[in-house]
Amino acid sequence: MLGALARALQLDEAATGHLFNLARSVSGSGRNSPSSSVQRVRPSLHKLLDSFTAHPAFIRGRRTEVLGMNPLAASLLTDFLAKPVRHRSLIRWAFLDPEARQRYADWEQVSASMVGTLRLDAGRHPHDPLLAQLVGELSMNSEEFRTWWADHRVVERRDGIKRFTHPDVGYLEVNYEALDVTGATDQTLFIYTTEPGSESEAKLRDLEARLKSPGAAPRG
After folding, report:
1. HSE of 142 in the Cβ direction (CA atoms, 13 Å)?
2. Of 30, 34, 83, 145, which is most buried with the most CB atoms under 10 A?
3. Residue-level pLDDT at 38
4. Mean of the pLDDT values across residues 88-107?
């Protein structure tokens, strides 16, 4: 019946999955799932991230939390791993840190999309107290978040373009791919690349070179 409803409403794959998750939460299934347990990244994946020296890469977990990232990603975005554990979510940074509004060239589009991603997470884990705390904090401190959260839109991005304005190298565009981590529930690997020969590629190489300079440290 839910499948027929999804087809009648012409829901996309993400919205259809969200509909089924909501139905499961109403029926009570998943109520005892360890949704608030600490997520950890396998040591081999940390090594993989560090091997991507020419490409920013990070692993996103529940509540848009950054679980691991390489130095180039920390420089392009912000060093999430240097923050307190509960302050490592992309969406919290996007809405509550003024730096994020400067770093994302299209902040509104990116942030609205993050709200849709968090809505998907809420459908999968409706009884997660940490997610409820995060939604409460964002709702209290951001009018934009309150407005977009009330839309009930769901978003699942697998590829696309991100636009940044970096304080050291200026404006650049990157292509991103989002890949599910095999054997790790709710973990997604993000890899940023640039078009060969583009100005953005040159700026990313500049950023990489700055990290290799003596005394260099990630921005953020």
Report:
1. 25
2. 145
3. 82
4. 97
Task: Find the length of the chain.
Answer: 220
In the chain, % of residues over pLDDT 70: 80
**Which H or E run includes 192?**
strand 188-193
Long-range contacts formed by 106-112: CB under 8 A, 24+ apart: 106/163, 108/144, 110/162, 111/144, 111/145, 111/148, 112/144, 112/148, 112/153
Instruction: Give tens-digit pLDDT for 185-194.
Output: 999 999 999 9
CB 85 within 8 A of CB 95: no
Q: Which two tokens stand for residue 93?
A: 């940074």
Average pLDDT over residues 213-218: 61
CB neighbourhood size of 99 (10 A): 14
- Distance (Å) of CA 170 to CA 54, 91, 128, 164, 165: 18, 23, 39, 8, 5
Q: What domains appear along the chain, each with residue ranges and CATH number? A: 43-212 (3.30.450.180)
CA gap 140, 185 in Å, rounded: 30
Quickly count helices (H) and strands (E) in the chain. 10, 5
Whether this model's pTM surpasses 0.90: no
